[in-house]
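Exam review. A common question shows you a sequence with its structure tokens and asks you to describe the fold in words. Practice with the pair below. Do the first one on your own.
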Amino acid sequence: MTERSYTYYNLGVAIAGFLTRGGEILCRTRDLETMEWGPYAPFAPQRESFQYPDRIAAWEFLSAAARGERPFDPADYAEVDSPYTAGSGARLWVRRLGVHPVDYVLCEGRAVAAIGVLQKRIDVLVEDGFEGVTPLRDHRDPLLSQPVWGKRCLGTFDVPMRDGVTLSTAVYLPRNGPAPQTRFPVVLIRTCYGKPREIIMHPFIHYGYALVIQDTRGREESGGEWSPIVNEMDDGKDTLDWIAAQDWCDGSIGMIGASYLAIVQWNAAASGHPNLKAMISQVTGGTPTYEFPHRNGILCSGTLAWLFSMSGRRMEQAQMDRDDWADVVKLLPIREIPQRALGKEIPCWREWMDHESMDDYWERSNWERFADKINVPTLYVSGWFDDVGTGTSQAWRMNRRMGRPDQRMILGAWRHQFNVSRDIHGIDYGVRAVRYDLFYQYIRWFDRFLKGVENGARQDPRVEYYVIGSNRWAQSCDWPPKESALVPYYLSGGGSANTRLGDGVLRDAPPVAEEPADHYLFDPNDPAPHLIDMSENECMVPENYREMELRPDVLVYTSAPLEKDLTVAGELSFVLYAATDRPDTDWVARLTEVDGEGNSLRLSDGVLRARYRESLKEPKLLTPGEVVRYEIPMSWVANTFRAGHRIRVEVTSGAENSIFPNHNTGKPIADDTEMLVASQTVFHDAARCSHILLPVIPGEN
């Protein structure tokens, strides 16, 4: 009777073990406080108490392995080359579609490992002796901290802020390590979603880091009132002061977190705190009017779903999951939306309505104005379809402008919920779109800058980015890649670019003669849509805009089929010459790739409210009929346009579901109930050549 042993790892930490003997499966679990193993006992599916609900299904895997069967349907998987299996005779099979895929390693046709890409974790269930053909090989790095520490909860403390409000703060310390130690480097997580949700990051403790998790002001068990962003600068500094003064802190503090949990990092860094020595900024939002909750001065309607779910002291997902968002975003006046759609006021919404421009209210949270104080080694993680990706771009550009050392970035074909799938809404981004090594990179980063380990992290590629289309990872010494060059592609046509059936053309040479302008009517009662499901709380997903391009209020400019591949990587922008008959309006530019079947897949877009064309602080209304040159920043991307495909640019004035439409009246939007149709004119002649700037990589085309 063949007996095989297996171990289940969570982020490199062994948490359970299994034995298979014929048809019998035995299991033992590990006490993560003492790191001692319990005895083996018969295992059954209902005994998977060591698991989070979405972990690898150990019973199914072990049962199939014992029978010599594959625990997956090959039709749903692809066999791929892997650096972990190279030269070993083993092969990696990856799930091509779906969220949180579980992949498998086969050796001589037998499953020896399962690899689960599960939210913030990488879990591995592996037959003992085969660890080297899985991501566990990374954790054998002799310069990497090893998960040998147990953990203990020191307690939950009410940490006082400067105004007397206390924030609920849980502290976990390593215990029973390889050497006596009472002071540790600290990993701090400040969260608006509740401390229990972040205990998933407990493996840091096992690697020898104290872990501090804090509810931000007004959330869960913390005191004070919830007002997103505005208090995070002071609260972040006060929290760092408190941690640095504790006898279990060795003076080195790092921060990690995604989305709002990254925004609070940048606010804390704005203090220039000497003990904040490393950050891992995942899908961060930017400053308040540049990115969140406004985008280039336009209030984001896509923020409503998140804000509704956060309207109580605890996050309520049910408030996000509703089927009437299309009606909600049309309610007027905008100030009254929470009361009418949610049945209650949201205090911060009222504040937002009173502060439409970048005034002192928002300046309190504008961390970029403290660029001279922000000097923290930072590992950035984001993606092309992250709805707050411009926040990561903003932070990166700030630190590069200031000449800060030790900045590193990983950019994937990912949405805001990053590194969880190889496709987004059925659009396949290739078998390598998911990475197994992110947590390894996090430990490596903190080891270098919190523990002082000379592990080579400073010599790693400064930027790793995923190129859509060619579906591969690339490296660069900077971002945008220094080898990229901005190449203009010009709008052209005979004056009838409305819809994709019109005569709009995108050319690589500027117009040399007069060309008739294009016209459309923008009705804020019926703006062109931005294709998202607001309940998903993902506002920048790629979708097929083919049908939307049949609207007469969308101008469409399409290149000829490409003769060869064209790779772009970097920051995009759109230069628009346009006029309107109203004192204010919005402009929306979108870049898509059109395949051989005519599908028009979104790659990037940008929006601009005309009154903020010169300054987010000092709005300036238009003179109706005046031709104005606009520069519209667009979201970043790396993409290979395939030979035979076409490049397409859309110009319109609405992005329903993403932004609240401009009423075209020039009045403050919060209480305005009047909506005016605007007559829009887009110019593309020799003197006023509207164009998109694409960061082309010359050597790859």
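Now try the second one, then compare your answer with the model answer below.
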Amino acid sequence: MNQVRQIKTVAELRAFRQEVGRHPQRVALVPTMGALHQGHLALVKAAWDRCEQVIVSIFVNPMQFGPHEDYGRYPRTLDHDMELLSAYPGTVVFTPSVEEMYPTGPSWTIVSIPRMTGTMCGLHRPGHFEGVCTVVAKLFNIIQPDMAFFGQKDGQQLAIIRKMAADLNFPVEIVAVPTVREPSGLALSSRNQYLDSEDLRRAPRLYQALRQARDRFEQGERTGSVLLDVVHNVLADADITPEYIALVDYHTLEPVEQITDRPVMLALAAQIGKARLIDNVVLTGSEKPRHP
């Protein structure tokens, strides 16, 4: 199969997966909500580098949007997405409708990890990660991938999905792919489309703040409050009020006051114009982040 193939139904995808299963090859899943950019394509490339078959899902999941969030205006650019994916022949693109994924209406079954979802983004977006976990669990069940590829930019999501897969015994290796950035340092995001010229001038300060804190860490600083202050001060100079700044354990998302050998994540979120943007950097001591 040399061209990109679109599949719209669960039944057709399961039939395809059964056919693929007759051959000794690894299957990768790259879950997305569409509006693809080079960050997504980095996930697809990483998946093809490690697997013999790649399935990209494009589904704007209503379960992970709050009542006053941007579900209705979230960019939907399927034709452009398919054109971008044509650079990776053999890719299967799963594009189910809401009715296909939730045939009886909103799911009564919710997958939740309260110890990890009630902080950071979850504190400000109630129900968001429950929606993410539920739809990813459904995709794991439907597709039965050997590996699933997620961007490090969504660091909290990555930790939560990794924990969910372990707790529910999904035989899926969760692979983290480094954040792709603009030359300015701004992390690529589908929501960057909401930014106007003034926003695009200010938004790179998010990563600049994280980078300055990382520099302090690399110079030997291990006190969490000091690193958080570095980020806060850079943002204040840019007149940016963060939604949150957090220093947490890379795997458990528990707050960290003093960095030891375990890897930690310094993360933030802020509203820049009409876009809610997130970013993070991983700070590692002697122990490197595990990607089970």
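Model answer, second protein: The chain has a mean pLDDT of 95. The chain has two domains: 5-177, 192-280. Full marks require stating both points clearly.
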